[in-house]
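[stage:ingest] chain + small molecule (protoporphyrin IX containing FE)
[stage:ingest] validated
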Amino acid sequence: LPANEVAAVKSTWNSIKHDEVAILEAVFKAYPDIQARFPKFAGKSLDSIKGSADFAIHASRIVSFFSEYIAFLGVENTQPAIKTILNELGQSHRNRGVTKAQFEEFHQALNAYLKSHANWNPDIAHAWDDAFDKAYFVIFSAL
Ligand code: HEM
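[stage:predict] done
[stage:export] tokens:
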């Protein structure tokens, strides 16, 4: 990713990364089929689970994964490490039957969250698209 895109992704991410529970809530609200994949959350109302410890733990795992990925961006010689974590994510999700379409839904939901909660303009949107494309290229190869 070009340096200006890396900077745009990092700064917008830093501005929302503390919204762990709200991010997961936005994803489940927009795409109930994603929620339905979670044995702990399937079939329950979002309002009844969003305050639970399980929900907070999972929200924190997702956000931490993004933080790890984004921290690698723009740093030299991190390609192999990035590839490894993305491959592992693809494999663990393949084993759960998660589909590419559901990853695309996740992308849409996170994009919508960023758009309404972070500084946003066409350049920033483009930077995020590139960051997702790069990640999904590897994840999808393992899915
Ligand atoms: C578990 C991240 C998309 C369903 C996890 C874990 C992480 C994670 C870090 C825990 C470690 C692991 O098992 O690999 C992400 C990220 C995503 C994403 C960063 C998008 C870029 C999705 C989607 C679905 C999903 C789209 C479902 C449609 C699950 C399930 C678990 C899980 C069911 C297991 C939860 C448990 O039983 O503890 N995810 N995930 N994930 N993810 Fe995802």
